[in-house]
Amino acid sequence: MKRTTLLSLIFSIALSACGGPSAQAAPGEDAKERLAKAEAMFQERCKKAGEFIYRTAENVEGVFLLKLRPGRINYGDQYRMDDPYGRDVGGDGYITNFLLGRDAKGSLVEKSTVKNGYRYVDAVDPRDGKRYRYTGSIKEVTRTTSIMMGGDGKTQFKSKEFVLERIPAPDPAPRYGVTYDDISTRDERDYWIAGSSLKVIDLQTNEVMAERIGYMMDRGQGANGGGRAPWLLAAYHACPAFPVTPGGQPFKMDQTRDFVEKALPIKQEK
User: Which end of the chain is more exposed for a tag (fewer CB within 10 A), N or C?
Assistant: First the structure.
């Protein structure tokens, strides 16, 4: 299933469950007044949002991911400061996104690429504190049919897939690092506003080369009836706004790579 199609399906399910925005007011608080206050706070934060490129590099081969993203998605934990705005892909997928090439339309893809991704990515494994170097390529792997997908759970087949590999990282470490932070305050989270900072850093000089500041707000103010996912739907109300899929949903999956590449253009293989 294509990345955009999968995202459209997720958003469609969330929208069908929510029944439209409905601000949740505290006891004695008017819902309309609460939403108006949240909107005013959000618009004030948007005045400092945007992409800021201070310096760019040339022909970059690899990057150091200073902080990885967890695999678990935060759909509705109001006060978990895990950067819901900036969260695109978690787990190994976050690393893989930096290694994927781009097709003729500029989309990140595993095959039929016209531009290569970064040759390698370094990251510290939090389990042992050691730095590893990740690379990726298309390889033939053996899979077993899934019962959930109509298979018998026994039959094996071969498939060509993008495979992530890692080795202990050699020195020196990449010069350029990528990191993110949740910059929300308690007051902002009270009104379901999430703030995000994404930075590209020259690790030799500790200079911030580029930074993206973003905010998003759930207009339903945390309403979760029928399985509604507040942080998922907050992506509709964001600054900077996310690109929109053909189905009309905000597309967040490639945002980190897209921004980083503006400051760290990739060296292309000849």
Answer: C
